């Protein structure tokens, strides 16, 4: 029997196939070397960057002369760079940031939209998110959108034309794990675009649970960058995402209240 490989079951976003279902962020690492090593250990092919905070190019503002840039250690010919609108609190600001990213990245249309509504919880402002999504889709962007775990809102964002919907599992950076599995399940079961958990994952078991629910992928940053050993945690997350996907495809046994013998009882000797 031929062994299964992730390439047999790709993640497809905006018409492009990816072997890895783990997407990673680039913030909070100690330095660019750790960023590169953790990203490689995760096996990530899509990496998200905060366009308003990240020095993309050599000699960018806030960067010492001669220092490498993010694109030096995560080259676009190897990774799909996913600019995000982190730090935006209005639709206008988010749209402006996406247009800036498209200019910086030579017409790159794939973007991650997030419009925040509260500085403490970093929950999304869903009204402003809808407004920005409509404008960006009309402007030719391929929008992957961070949102709440509301199934109705997820459906609306898909109807607008977003190429992936990214509901939170818990507040950004909280590490609380999957707090809303029934909402996520409802979103997954009614979606026609990839559903990628974004925010709240703390450890490998959280990533596995998200994938076992049928989510198409997981995006994380703090869970890896904030670990005692980010590179090792990145590898753990990659294994968890793959295992969770395999378990989902295999189909778990039903839950029962009572024991069920692993070995058949018919024909026992004596």
Keywords:
cytoplasm; thiazole synthase activity; 5-stranded parallel sheet; transferase; 270 residues; single chain; alpha/beta; 3-stranded parallel sheet; thiamine biosynthesis; Thiazole_synthase_ThiG
In short, what is this structure?
By secondary structure, the protein is of the alpha/beta class. The protein has nine helices and ten strands.
Q: How would you describe this structure to a colleague?
A:
This protein has about 270 residues and is α/β, with parallel strands linked by helices. About 35% of the residues lie in helices and about 15% in strands. The chain has nine helices and ten strands. It has helices at about 30-40, 70-75, 90-105, 125-140, 150-160, 180-190, 205-210, 220-225, 230-250, and strands at about 10-15, 15-20, 20-25, 45-50, 80-85, 110-115, 140-145, 165, 195-200, 215-220. The strands form three sheets. The chain has a five-stranded parallel sheet with strand order 5-4-3-10-9. Strand 7 (about 140-145), helix 5 (about 150-160) and strand 8 form a beta-alpha-beta unit. Helix 5 packs parallel to helix 6 (about 180-190). The longest helix has 21 residues, at about 230-250. It is globular, with a radius of gyration of 20 Å. It starts with 10 loop residues before the first strand and ends in a 20-residue tail after the last helix. The model is unreliable at about 60-65 (pLDDT under 50). Homotetramer. Forms heterodimers with either ThiH or ThiS. GO terms for molecular function: thiazole synthase activity.
């Amino acid at each position: 029997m031929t062994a299964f490989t992730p390439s047999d079951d790709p993640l497809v976003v905006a018409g492009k196939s990816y072997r890895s279902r783990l997407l990673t962020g680039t913030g909070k690492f100690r330095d660019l070397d750790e960023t590169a090593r953790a990203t490689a250990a995760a096996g990530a092919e899509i990496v998200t960057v905060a366009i308003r905070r990240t020095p993309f190019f050599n000699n960018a503002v806030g960067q010492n002369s001669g220092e490498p840039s993010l694109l030096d250690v995560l080259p676009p010919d190897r990774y799909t760079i996913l600019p995000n609108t982190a730090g935006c609190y209005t639709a206008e600001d988010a749209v402006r940031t996406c247009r800036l990213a498209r200019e910086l990245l030579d017409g790159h249309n794939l973007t991650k939209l997030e419009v925040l509504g509260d500085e403490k919880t970093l929950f999304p402002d869903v009204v402003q998110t809808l407004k920005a999504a409509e404008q960006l889709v009309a402007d030719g962007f391929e929008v992957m959108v961070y949102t709440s775990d509301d199934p109705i809102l997820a459906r609306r964002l898909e109807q607008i034309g977003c190429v992936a919907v990214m509901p939170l599992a818990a507040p950004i950076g909280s590490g609380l794990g999957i707090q809303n599995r029934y909402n996520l399940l409802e979103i997954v079961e009614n979606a026609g675009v990839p559903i990628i958990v974004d925010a709240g994952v703390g450890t490998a078991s959280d990533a596995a649970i998200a994938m076992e629910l049928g989510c198409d992928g997981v995006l994380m940053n703090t869970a890896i960058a904030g670990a005692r050993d980010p590179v090792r945690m990145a590898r753990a997350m990659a294994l968890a995402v793959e295992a969770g996907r395999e378990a989902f495809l295999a189909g778990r046994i039903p839950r029962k209240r009572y024991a069920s013998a692993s070995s058949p009882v018919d024909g026992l000797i004596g």
